[in-house]
Design brief:
There is one protein chain. With 501 residues, the chain is α/β, with parallel strands linked by helices. Helix 15 links the parallel strand 19 and strand 20. The model has no long low-confidence stretch (mean pLDDT 96). Helix content is 37%, strand content 21%. The strands form six sheets. A seven-stranded mixed β-sheet has the order 15-16-17-14-13-19-20, with helices on both faces. A six-stranded mixed β-sheet has the order 10-9-8-11-12-22, sandwiched between helices. The protein has a three-stranded mixed β-sheet with strand order 1-5-4, with helices on one face. Belongs to the aldehyde dehydrogenase family.
Amino acid sequence: MAATTESAVQRYRLYIDGEEVDASGGAVFPSTNPATGEPWAEVADATAEDVDRAVRAAARAFAHDSPWRTLSATKRGRLLMRLADAITAHADEIARIEVRENGKLLKEMAAQLRVVPEWLYYFGGLADKIEGKTIPLDRTSVLNYTTREPLGVVGVITPWNSPSLLTFMTLAPALAAGNTIVVKPSEVTSASLLEIARLLPEAGFPPGVINVVTGARVAGQALAAHPGVAKIAFTGGSDAGRSIAATVGGRLGRVTLELGGKSPNIVFEDADLDAAEAGVLAGIYGAGGQTCIAGSRAFVHESIYDELLDRLRRRAEGIVLGNPLEPETQMGPAATEAQLQKIAQFVDDARGEGARVVAGGQRGSVEALPNGFFYEPTILAQITNESRVAQEEVFGPVLAAMPFRDDEEAIQLANATRYGLAAGIWTQNVKRAHRVARRLDAGTIWINLYRAITYNSPFGGFKESGIGRLNGVDAVDEFLQTKSVWVELSDDVQDPFVLKV
C-alpha cells in the first residue's frame, strides 16, 4: 500500500499480469481532488495495446492448466476471503484515497470499504456451491448431466461514485464463478482500485487473474470491442451502456448493465412524516445525489405536499457543505467540474421551463475551499413530470417535487419514465404498500426506508436501467454457462442409420 500525503503528487501505473507497468505510450492523466480543485495524482493512460496485453494475461490465467483453473472451488473461494481480510486491514487508507478522488464523505467511503469484504466473504462461500444437474432421460442407458462453467475473460467497467463497492459487486461473483478479470475503472477514480490490486499477491491470487487498465474512452472502447473478452459488465450511465451493448453485441458477446435511474419516492397522506422526511432527504442528498438510486423525484400527496415541502426546504437549507474529510460535513462536492456544470445546467433549464426554486439552485460556497466543485442542495417545484429535470438523470443534489391526487395517479407518474431502477413508498397502510409495490416498474422497491442494498439480495433495473442482476445467487449465474454432457453406458453399438429416440 503506497503512502499518501496531502501535498505530494501520487503516481499510479497499470496493473497487468501481476506487475505494475507504465502505459505503452507513456501517457498519464491527472486525478483532481474535487474539494480543492487541485490535482493530487497522475495515472497511467492505457492504450488499446495495453488493453490487449491485459486481456492476453487474463486469458493465460484462464487456461485449463493454469494455477487459477486448477484450484478447487473451495480454495478459490478462500482466496476471495483472504482478499477480504487484506482490504479490511487497509480500509481506512483506501477510503481516504476515494475521498480525494470523488469528494464523497469520508464516513460514507469508510463505511463502504468496511462492507466490501462482506461481498467477498459471501461469494467466496458460494464458490463451491455451484452445481450441475443430472437429467433423467427416457433412454436409460444414457447418462446426461450438466456442469456450470465460467465464461472466460470478463471485462469490468466501473463508475466513479462508489468505486470499490461497485467494482466488487461485480468482481466477487465473477471470480467465485472462476472467471478472470480485466477492470477499467473510471478515469475519475482509478487510484483506489490500483491500491487494492497491490494486495492481490498478499491474498495469493495468481498473476493475470485480475488486471487493471486505467484511462478514458480509448481503454473502455478497446475492452468492449476485444474479441478475447467473453463478457462486459458495465456500471454507469444509460447512454454509455447503450453504446457498450451495441459494441459487444456486434461480436455476439455478453453484457451485464447496471445503469441509471430516475427513482421516485412516493409519500402517501398516511405516511409517518418524520420518517418520510428523513427518507426523501437521504434518497437525494445522501452521496450528494451522485448515485444511480437517487430518489430524485418526490411525489407527495396533495394534502401533505406543502407541509412536507416546507420541512424538506428547512432541512436542505441547513445541510453543511464542506471538506468531505471533516466529520461535521454533511455533503461534499460534485466529483468533477464537468459534473458541477451539468447540475447547474439542469437547474437553469428547469428555471427556464417555469420551475420554482424552493431551496438552493446555485453553486455552493465553502470559505475554506473556494475552488471546490460544490452545489447547493436544491428543491424544485411547479414542474411537470414531463420536464427534462424530471425525466433525465441529473446525478446531483436536485430534487423534483410534485403533488398527486390518489394512488392511481402516483403509480402512473412514478412509472412514466424510461428508467426502472428503484422506488420508495411511504405509507402505514400495509395493503396499499404491497399493492403499489406490485405495480411499480422498478427492480428494487423500498417501503418506509431508502438506499438499502446488501450482498445477498439481487439488485438491478427494469427498462433502460439495466440488464442482469448484481448481488445474491442471481449474480453468480450471470457469469456462468451451462454444458450438457451425454454418456452412453451400454455396450450396444448403435446403427448409424437408425435414429434412436
